[in-house]
Each structure stands twice: as structure tokens, then as C-alpha cells.
Predict the structure of GFA family protein.
Amino acid sequence: MIHGSCLCGGVQYDYAGEFGTITVCHCSDCRKAQGTSTVVAAPVNAAQFRWRKGSELIAEYESSPGKKRAFCRRCGAPLYSRRDDAPEVLRLRMGTIDNAVDATPVAHIFTANVPAWAAMDDELPRYDGQEPGRG
């Protein structure tokens, strides 16, 4: 079981499923939403995701048509993103996970947007846009 929370602890969740393809995103939207050079996210099955506490603290912002980014209203911590056309999937922000998990990113995406000050110091594959096969 995976346990996670926001910065203030007001929002807490459990996830009982597997991760999809974990990526490191460098798009300008993620940089602005996270306030850092990257976001590490993984698709998860929404049906296996459960809010343990604080679901009333979650706010969603529609950052582009049909795409919502969720965060805690109290501390501002980003939690997940989702698309209206894929309600069965949440793209979980891996930084919210509280317990140790055996999961690693497999690629950098939207690398055409990497600013000069953001280092990529690993050997993961790099894609100018989304990773191949992602719908």
C-alpha cells in the first residue's frame, strides 16, 4: 500500500495499485505549476486511489482545456493532474508519496523546453514531447 500526503498533512491518500510509466516532465506548464525545473509523475488507476483525509481541501485548476491540476488549498502542494477524457487515470505527483516505493522514472519528456539552468545528469531517454505510446 502506498501512502501519501500534501506538505501540511491536511490531505492524505492511499493507493493500492501499480504505477504506469514514470516520467520526468520538463514542459513549461509543469515548471510553472510545480515551481521547479521538473515534475516526476506516474499514471495511477483512480479506482484504486482513496482519500484518507482532507478531500475537501483539494482544489483543481484547469490549466488547459480538459486538463485539471489538483493541489491542497491550505499549503498549495501539487497532488495530481487528470484529463476529463480519461477519468480512470490520475497522474500522481511522486513527491507526495510518504513511504518507500520501488519505482524509478524511465524517461525525460518535453526536453525541448529545458531551460539552461536545469541540469539533466542521468542517462534516461529524452523526448522532445511526450514519450512514445502515451495517448
